[in-house]
């Protein structure tokens, strides 16, 4: 019995669309009412999560979609997973929800076991964790850790000076130092103030927000698949060009670059992959210039690339300094290994809750289920199966499949269409035919199914995709 069959014996066998149009009349009515108290403009449809199960999401019109978007890549084990429901019923969960502790001041007796459970699934080389509330929060907490670490090294562990204590109250140096985080063009790291300054994918994420004057380096634009010998020489030159650009920015930026932040695969920005050579080259540069190296695994982490953490494909040596996480882990925060990243005084890395114990419990259970059911191997197997099917469609419709990418990266697969209009039409047509799929960048389709997605689900999707392509071409 497969994991999906074990978890979801009543999962639908096929998607069903009951309405003539998507969204249907009940969704439109629900959106109209919801729109009075909430911004529904980005909404695809109004979901009925009570009826959603496994790899299928149901809307309030009763339409049942095979879901390859999974709440923007954040559902690891499918909808209404029975193992997670059991955790939700536990006494520990009741305590976490009803008496939500201020963990920094009043840590619960359950906290140690929760954190140790999460650390069982930490990236290679990492053995500490600090918890947050969301992906953007995780990145901003990592920035704080990096800045405090960087300045403490300059201070050689000495206490703050009187000048630092006084100037910081006026948002002036030296207490408020001029420091930068280097990120990359097309990157997405969140929509808060500091994370927004590191984001460089779409203007809409950043408009009207005051920003730090931080550099954005060139991210490699490869020929895919990355592993093909025919593309090796071009991709090597592209890596070297971008590494040279990173080094030049570190050396010449008007304010010191304290940290470098990168996604192993730029997700929102278009599913742009970073090679092993490039990620290791960045490690070499960060060591050379004493820059903190942060890997953003918010979307790429927790299994969907076929490894628990995508950057582990690169076997970066020595390990990166900080690894941020959220989405499929349901919890959020960053992993680290050097105790020097623990701030020099209490209350420096602090807020009321210091994370969310209810989500930590779910994260630990997700990790356990992934390991118990060997879902990483399944994801790799199903991803290879799906990629081969997509290559077949690419041969039939080369004009609608540009830069098919994600080979040997589990189900973390994407491709480009010639225009944003064609991409949006394809996504709309897919939903009308029973598959919920997402986009990224301006004209890319990205696949983000749960880890319980199997070959039978892939076959359904490929058939729906072929039908939808034929309708788009008409």
TrEMBL record:
Keywords from UniProt, A to Z, are: Aminotransferase, Pyridoxal phosphate, Transferase
Q: Name one GO molecular function term.
A: 4-aminobutyrate:2-oxoglutarate transaminase activity
Q: Name one GO cellular component term.
A: mitochondrion
Provide the cofactor list for this protein: pyridoxal 5'-phosphate
Q: What is this protein called?
A: 4-aminobutyrate aminotransferase
Q: How is this protein organized at the quaternary level?
A: Homodimer and homotetramer.
Q: What family does this belong to?
A: Belongs to the class-III pyridoxal-phosphate-dependent aminotransferase family.
**What EC numbers are recorded for this enzyme?**
2.6.1.19
- Cross-referenced SUPFAM superfamilies: PLP-dependent transferases (SSF53383)
Query: What's the catalysed reaction?
Result: 4-aminobutanoate + 2-oxoglutarate = succinate semialdehyde + L-glutamate
InterPro entries, per database record: 4NH2But_aminotransferase_euk, Aminotrans_3, Aminotrans_3_PPA_site, PyrdxlP-dep_Trfase, PyrdxlP-dep_Trfase_major, PyrdxlP-dep_Trfase_small
**Biological process (GO) annotations?**
gamma-aminobutyric acid catabolic process
Sorted alphabetically, which Gene3D superfamilies does this protein's record hold? Aspartate Aminotransferase, domain 1, Type I PLP-dependent aspartate aminotransferase-like (Major domain)
């Amino acid at each position: 019995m497969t994991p999906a069959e074990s978890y979801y014996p009543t999962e639908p066998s096929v998607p069903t669309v009951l309405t003539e149009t998507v969204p249907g009349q009940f969704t439109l009515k629900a959106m109209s009412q919801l729109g009075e108290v909430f911004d529904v403009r980005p909404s695809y449809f109004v979901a009925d999560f009570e009826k959603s199960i496994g790899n299928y999401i149901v809307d309030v019109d009763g339409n049942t979609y095979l879901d390859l978007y999974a709440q923007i890549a954040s559902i690891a084990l499918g909808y209404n997973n029975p193992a997670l429901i059991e955790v939700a019923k536990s006494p520990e969960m009741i305590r976490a929800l009803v008496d939500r502790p201020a963990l920094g001041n009043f840590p619960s007796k359950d906290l140690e076991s929760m954190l140790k459970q999460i650390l069982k699934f930490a990236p290679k080389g990492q053995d500490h964790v600090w918890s947050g509330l969301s992906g953007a929060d995780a990145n901003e907490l990592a920035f704080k850790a990096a800045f405090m670490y960087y300045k403490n090294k300059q201070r050689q562990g000495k206490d703050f000076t009187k000048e630092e204590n006084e100037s910081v109250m006026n948002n002036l140096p030296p207490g408020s130092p001029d420091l930068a985080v280097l990120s990359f063009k097309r990157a997405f790291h969140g929509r808060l103030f500091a994370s927004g300054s590191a984001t460089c994918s779409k203007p809409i994420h950043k408009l009207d927000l005051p920003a730090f004057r931080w550099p954005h380096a060139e991210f490699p634009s490869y020929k895919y698949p990355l592993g093909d010998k025919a593309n090796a020489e071009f991709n090597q030159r592209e890596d070297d060009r971008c590494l040279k650009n990173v080094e030049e920015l570190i050396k010449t930026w008007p304010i010191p670059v304290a940290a470098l932040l990168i996604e192993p695969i730029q997700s929102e920005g278009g599913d742009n992959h970073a090679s092993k050579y490039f990620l290791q080259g960045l490690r070499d540069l960060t060591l050379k210039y004493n820059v903190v190296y942060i890997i953003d695994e918010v979307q790429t982490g927790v299994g969907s690339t076929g490894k628990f953490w995508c950057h582990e494909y690169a076997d970066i040596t020595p390990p990166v300094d900080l690894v941020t996480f959220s989405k499929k882990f349901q919890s959020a925060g960053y992993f680290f290994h050097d105790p020097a990243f623990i701030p020099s005084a209490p209350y420096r890395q602090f807020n009321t809750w210091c994370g969310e114990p209810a989500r930590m419990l779910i994260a630990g259970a997700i990790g356990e289920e992934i390991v118990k059911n060997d879902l990483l191997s399944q994801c790799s197997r199903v991803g290879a199966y799906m990629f081969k099917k997509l290559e077949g469609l690419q041969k039939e419709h080369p004009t609608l499949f540009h830069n098919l990418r994600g080979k040997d990266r589990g189900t973390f697969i994407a491709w480009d269409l010639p225009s944003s209009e064609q991409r949006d039409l394809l996504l709309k047509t897919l939903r009308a035919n029973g598959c919920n799929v997402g986009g990224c960048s301006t004209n890319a389709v990205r696949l983000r199914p749960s880890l319980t997605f199997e070959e039978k689900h892939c076959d359904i999707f490929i058939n729906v995709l072929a039908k939808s392509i034929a309708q788009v071409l008409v």
